[in-house]
Amino acid sequence: MTMGSVHVLDHPLLQHKLAILRDEKTGVKEFREIVGEVAGLMCYEATRNLPMEEVQVKTPIAMATCRMLAGKKLAIVPILRAGLGMVDAMIDLVPSAKVGHIGLYRDPETHLPIKYYCKMPPDISERSVFVVDPMLATGGSASDAITILKNEYGCKSITLMNILAAPEGVAKIQADHPDVDIFVASVDEKLNDHAYIVPGLGDAGDRIFGTK
Predict the structure, then answer these.
(1) What's the pTM?
(2) Residues labelled catalytic
(3) Pair 34, 17: CB distance under 8 Å
(4) Which region holds residue 110: left if phi is over 0, alpha if psi is between -120 and 50, else beta?
(5) DSSP string, 93-109
(6) Quick one: which of 170, 72, 70, 176 has its CA closest to 126?
(7) pLDDT in tens, 76-112
(8) Which pLDDT tens digit goes with each residue over 105-145?
(9) Fold of the domain built from segment(s) 6-209
């Protein structure tokens, strides 16, 4: 099996917006808006290699040979709740994409993942799936979500998109799902003792929804 690639997107606009997200003084409204802007820029890069086909289009002047998307349709699957902040901007770019949702928590005693919500488009197995979550910390939730998509829904084409990642999370995904490409704006230094990414940007869900 081919090892999935880690793509660190270093576009100047993306890195500029990431700096604003990291700033503890950035308020909820601005943080939420910029998460969407970053997701849109990342989606632009992550979809760069989608298959194309030639089509004939009649312009007001003449016939033109153009290129349009071909092959599988797309699906976006945010990991609840923070992943919701990345969806709208991606839908703006790919309006035909369908959206699934997956929510997970860990049993405090067994530490096994428990699904508390999972709803997917009926044709999800036929689509190229983008799993989105702003933070890839330990990688546990992302790995579990990808496992569910593969085992329960038959998904075969999966890409993971995160704004920030820790090396530990990247290693977890590559070990558990070596076929999955990862797109991030930055791979940070490490996780701290509370499994927060360092230097990171804090809790993305709390900062998107103003819950802390």
Answers:
(1) 0.90
(2) 106, 110, 203, 206
(3) yes
(4) alpha
(5) H-TT-EE-EEEEEE-TT
(6) 72
(7) 999 998 999 999 999 999 998 999 999 987 777 776 6
(8) 777 777 667 889 999 999 999 999 999 999 999 999 999 99
(9) Rossmann fold (3.40.50)
